[in-house]
Write a structure and sequence with these properties.
The complex is a heterodimer of chains A (177) and B (754). Chain A has 177 residues and is of the alpha+beta class. In chain A, 29% of the residues lie in helices and 29% in strands. In chain A, strand 4 and strand 5 form a beta hairpin. In chain A, helix 2 crosses helix 3. Chain B has 5 domains: 141 residues, Alpha-Beta Plaits, CATH 3.30.70; 155 residues, Sulfite Reductase Hemoprotein, domain 1, CATH 3.30.413; 76 residues, Alpha-Beta Plaits (2-Layer Sandwich), CATH 3.30.70; 183 residues, 2-Layer Sandwich (Sulfite Reductase Hemoprotein, domain 1), CATH 3.30.413.10; 138 residues, Nucleotidyltransferases  domain 2 (Four Helix Bundle (Hemerythrin (Met), subunit A), Up-down Bundle). In chain B, 39% of the residues lie in helices and 15% in strands. The longest helix of chain B has 33 residues. Classes of the chains: A alpha+beta (177), B alpha+beta (754). Chains A and B meet through helix 1 and strand 2 of A and helix 4, strand 15, helix 12, helix 14 and strand 24 of B.
Amino acid sequence: MTPERIQIKLFRHSETDLKELIPTFHEWIRDETVDGLLIDVADYRHVPNGPGLLLMGHDGDYSVANDNGRTAIVYKHKRDWPSAELADRVNFALDRALNVASKLESDPINQIEISFPDRLNTPNTAETFEALAPTISTVASQALNTPIQFTHGSTDPRHMFALLSQPNQEIVPQAKI
Amino acid sequence: MSDLTWKDRLQNQIDPDSLQEIDLFENQITLKKQGKLDDKVFGETRLRRGAYGQRYDNGQRHNGAESVTIPFPSDGLTKGTETVWDAPGMQRIKIPYGGMNPEQLDLLAQVAEEYSDDILHITTRQDIQLHFVHLEDTPDLMRRLGSVGITTREACGNSVRNITGCPLAGVCRTEAFDVTPYADAMTWFLLGHDDVQDFGRKFKIAFSGCAHEACGLVTIHDLGFIARLENEQRVFDIFVGGGLGTVPHQAQLLAQSVPEDEILPVTQAVCRVFARLGEKKNRNRARLKFLVAKLGIDEFKKLVQEERTILPHDDRWTDYLKDVPEQVDQPLRAPTFLNGAPLPEGFSDWYTTNVYHQRQAGYTTVTINLPLGDISSPQAYALADIARKYVGESIRTTVEQNLVLRWVSEKDLPDLYRELDAVHLAAPGAGTVTDITSCPGTDTCKLGIAASRGLSGELRDRLIAQNGSLHPAVSDLKIKVSGCFNSCGQHHISDIGFFGNSRRRNNRAVPHFQVVLGGKWEDNGGSYGLAVGAVPSKRIPDVFNAITDRYVNEKEAEETFQNWIGRLGKKEIRTMLKPYMDVPVYEESPELYSDWGDPREYTIGDIGIGECAGEVVSLFAIEVARAEGEAFDALIELDEANYVTAEAKAYNAMVLAARALIRNEFIDIGDDPARIVTEFKTRFYDTKLFFDKYAKGKFGRYLLQRHDSPPAAEQVTEAVAHRLIEEANLFIEAAHACDARIAQARQNTLKPIL
């Protein structure tokens, strides 16, 4: 089975003033600036290293969070996929994440995490890593036009299955996105 | 990877009854999608599974410029009246008496990641809520919770809600005895019980280990139990008919010294009386408090006693009692004491406010102070690990929206602090002025009028910034914030409370908060504060500073805030608030026309900008100000124990507010109350123009009922006067809202002409 939920996290090396983004997110809803059916803004700035500022949607959620001194630009796709294929789905989610990153002027992206909030279909095991990592690496490398190697993120079985690229690799320069 | 479903995978890990109920719910979802279930029936079914509505679930949202339809792909399908199928909702999860173990916390963190927004929100009734959940995800979510012994059944709807209890039960230094086993037995006895399926409204139960602390908040509950030892026997004093809501009622004593083996049958008898005689048609009069008030406590007692005598025996009433002596937490580590070893930076502040010394020497209970009651999934995993390492099973939620770890061996505190601090869970200030309680308000609640969380976050940030310089008398105050009059933030029982409302200035809406002063948190929520004036939301921090600065300067030696407020008097308080209450026009202070954390121009529903309005004060604004003045005079009379006058003024305030509305249509209405009430009924009540979207005609009936049945002077107690003043304030708020709706309708009519 293919994961029903995929989350892309793009890291940048410095933090973002999330308060300044609140009006931006409201404008994005009003102007339909990013893809997907957008519903509302949820503010979790008070939770340290939490989800930050969320742009809640019907099919997917966007967020920008500060994570241990870095900025994480996140897209989580939840439902209404255009394809049932894993590669298509990862590519689709990655595309939306990169699109929103391109709208937020900031530093280059220097690490990517692709995770699967779907423990039914993608339990956090070595078998899942072996089964999924090659496909996802290929998709990500093509999408980003640079070789991306992933390692298995946290192996704690409680945590969702996640793949993490090498740290501090300048994956997508700002100019490129 | 697997082709299994959660239903397949977990079928042997869930209690068969729970499994069947969840399967049934999933079937009902399917039937509803096929159009085979009525909206109202499905709505209540959904609520009884804890799947609640959320803001914008009618498919409309104001984007700052106009109200627009959110194009959900639901194709007309609804999951309740005016509730769009695909709109995200809130899932409430019952945590009986707040107790959970690390395995359950881990699972909660997982479902928050998968179905929600990575956040577990602790409520003021010790539940956990997930937001932005799609209805079709809820059956699997429920199965997964069921696999670790957590239920969402009857978490919402007209049913017995989560049963709350002291988070310190069993370790408290002042309790009579541990109420945990009784709260636990009550939870499972009533869950799905035949006698609790036909209520007109929700039913809330609380347990407290003593009368004088706040933890259980018994007096604000429909049914409450306070533990006592009498001749070394365990007994409970049982209270009924309490509740906050729009007009708060203090619970009254139903029975004293009830033996432990009687609490389940007495509860069952109360439930039967409530199911049989409680209001069913008008949900605004359907809580138990209204039945108790209507019958009188003596008649209610008599009915309960009669019901008790005819109840068929049930072994479950007493079966659990044999296990009560064994139901004692087993500490993971031996008791120890701090031994003078170096302490980490920040430890002392945290130790002062977040550590409670249990009655068991060498053990402490540690409070995890959660900002706005929120904890992220990664934090929850870390906390579950920390709990496993230091305390084993014992985690509880609190009504102050925090978590506690019990049975921490004292010598472990520095290491525990370091580990909590590493995941940002070691914020000091638990139980102090910075530990603000707040309902979700306009962030996610469909009933929210103002941004309670936005305000709470702002106050919290400001207070933390000056924490080192805060006067101790201010540090000890309680702040509680509700987004509307429904009191989910429990503003009535705080020193300084706020509840959201709105005002209109030249056809623009301005978010406000009513300031509620002088409530009492101790004594299980011992007394309720009163609203003293509505202030624009953005000015609340200044108002807070003005009140607390004056308190610090004027308080006598050991004078509590509540006593100082009583001594100061409402008139003086109003004078203090007055400079903050006036609203300048938009062009002078546009910042007042949006709420905390939300840059959109504030609106209720679709109320927007009226370009055709001139800079004039409306007739309504002038007239309703008289009503507000009269309501305030009533408060002063109440302060001075002139209850009959206070009650009469509260009534007159409603008449004046009704007159203010009528004068817009019928300038010569005159001053005769009978005529005003008749005209109000004809023009605004019978036409439903006065009706609130959710409360319907409730506020209008406050005037009609008081007018039709004025109390005799000897019947006007402090409580009667207090209640009518509360009702008058709500009536005035409703008049403001009604005027705004009418104004907006007029604008909409004019638009094509313009």
